[in-house]
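So, could you explain this one?
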Amino acid sequence: MACGIGLSSQANASLVTLQSLDINRSFDYSDGFKTYWNANATGLNAPDVFEVDAFENIRSGGDNFNLLTIEFDLKSTSLFNVFAGLDAHYGAEIYINDALEYKDLWWSNNWSHKSVVELENTVLSAGKNVVNLFWAESCCNGPNTVRFSFNNAEPVYLSSSSLVSAITAAPIANSIALVGLGLMGLIGLGNRRKAKPLRKA
């Protein structure tokens, strides 16, 4: 059975949605989480949706593959940070505007990896932006929590209302700093991908 958690604020052009699919020990994500989701989240597996106040200590169930989608409009170019404490035996992937920005699909077998997913100082353009966070868990139903911030403000727990408030209250990012941090992020992403090659379970 598939389940989902949805948080929305259509009037302020922001939407947060969590969807979950059942998986088993034959879960084959060798082609990537996004590819698996697109191939399997269809027909009878179409997720349900329900509401929570904030994405804090959310339990989506054991043997589940999850997709958290965050959509919002920005008035100006901004820095985006996301911090996710996930119960994710199989690891996680983050896509921003359809570009893969983070992948760690084998953390359970590498104890040097952090247990918190962190993606910091990502430069986002004005207008609509979409963040997709995929993760998968095997046996257990542990808590999942996500925080975020814009332009290096204090991180807050994710909800549709906090997303709107953070966008409204975020300080204007310095354009020179945005360019520098964007270049640093590209270099860092290249180094991470070389150091952490994708491995099949």
Summary: Helices lie at 33-40, 160-169, 175-195. Residues 2 and 21 are 5 Å apart (CA to CA). The chain has one domain: 3-195.
